[in-house]
Amino acid sequence: MKLLVTGGAGYIGGIVTRMLVDAGHEVVVLDDLSTGHTEALAPEATFVNARVHDAAQVLTPAAGFDGVLHFAAFIAAGESMTRPELYWENNTVGSLALIDAARAAGVRRFVFSSTAAVYGNPTELPIPESAVKAPTNTYGATKLAVDMALTSEAIGHDLGAVSLRYFNVAGAYLRDGVQLGERHDPETHLIPIALQVAAGRREKLQIFGDDYPTADGTCVRDYIHIEDLARAHLLALEAARPGEHRIYNLGNGNGFSNRAVAEVVREVTGRPVPVEIAPRREGDPAELVASSDRARTELGWTPAKPTLHDMVGDAWAFYRSQILEKA
Ligand SMILES: O=c1ccn([C@@H]2O[C@H](COP(=O)(O)OP(=O)(O)O[C@H]3O[C@H](CO)[C@H](O)[C@H](O)[C@H]3O)[C@@H](O)[C@H]2O)c(=O)[nH]1
Predict the structure, then answer these.
(1) Which residues make Cβ contacts (< 8 Å) with residue 78, sequence separation at least 6?
(2) Global pTM?
(3) Which of 110, 217, 249, 269 lies 20 to 30 A from 156 at CA?
């Protein structure tokens, strides 16, 4: 297929692009490099430096695109509470412009990066796709709005849409001499920050809140390896059917508290990770654990690296070779 990948210079979009190219697809990457890195771009893909808002410049009827995979977004849940306008403008307004462009260009398949954050504090665990959607942060709300727009688009204009609701993505892609991993600036995600502490680049890990209604009082998340997550995108692309909006949770169904994550980082790195309890971060749900039964049944998706040790091990290998050794 000829595919447009937005956010292909990011952690997840960059890795999915490699896998799409390896599978024989022709890929054009659209990314404004606002948070992405040129090193993450797959050399086989054509790169266009533009915002998703301007996708119509590339996504023309004459260009003959079969599908769009839409990763480009702002993703820091904490920041989305202090700068919500950025998130609505980039994540929602930008996505609506992209959907318009896709419609005008006759694109039949659309795979969207949705999130566990759409559920807010879940009323049932593990969380099925049918659970109540009540986001507690703006990030989740901006993504839920796009999910709803895709449902309308599938019904109204026969789009084949798939939303993949990521739980917490971790690990790195370490294959064929290519090393791609998580690198945000500034870093806000738990595992990369804990690795910076283990590496001595940061004094301590601040854990945001220990008074949540969980076993040890810290928030609980369900981690998924980037390779398993990426593979689900290729399956989703094949599964897209005109007039249907399919939605799949992607996680392993195992909850790890923030304290437990710090412990796994200590075990894997063999280094101390001093922890300090800090105030809660605005907008954080207490516990997010996925039921991914639908993805397993309908997509035939099976995670190959379900353990947090594997994820942290790969993230640590990436961090040491790509960040510490090149610094
Ligand atoms: O220095 C830190 C960083 C994070 N956390 C805590 O660690 C947990 C995980 O936080 P992350 O920022 O790593 O990720 P989120 O759980 O906020 O994940 C959200 O954002 C992700 C993308 O960034 C995914 O989309 C995911 O589905 C969505 O829920 C949260 O309890 C957070 O408060 C800390 O205690 N200290």
Answers:
(1) 137, 188, 281, 282, 283, 284
(2) 0.97
(3) 249
Catalytic residue annotation = 139
Structurally, what CATH architecture does the domain formed by 173-221+253-324 represent? Alpha-Beta Complex (3.90)
| Superfamily of chain region 2-168+225-250 | NAD(P)-binding Rossmann-like Domain (3.40.50.720)
β-strands 173-175, 178-180 pairing: antiparallel
Residue 322 — pLDDT band, cuts 50, 70, 90? Answer: confident
Best residue among 82, 165, 281 to mutate for probing ligand 1, ranked by most atoms within 8 Å of CB? 281
Is there an atom of ligand 1 within 6 Å of 193 CB?
Answer: yes
Index of the ligand 1 atom closest to the CA of residue 116 = 27
Q: Where are the domains of the chain?
A: 2-168+225-250, 173-221+253-324
166 lines ligand 1 (CB under 6 A): yes
Q: Which helix (H) or strand (E) holds 257?
A: strand 255-257
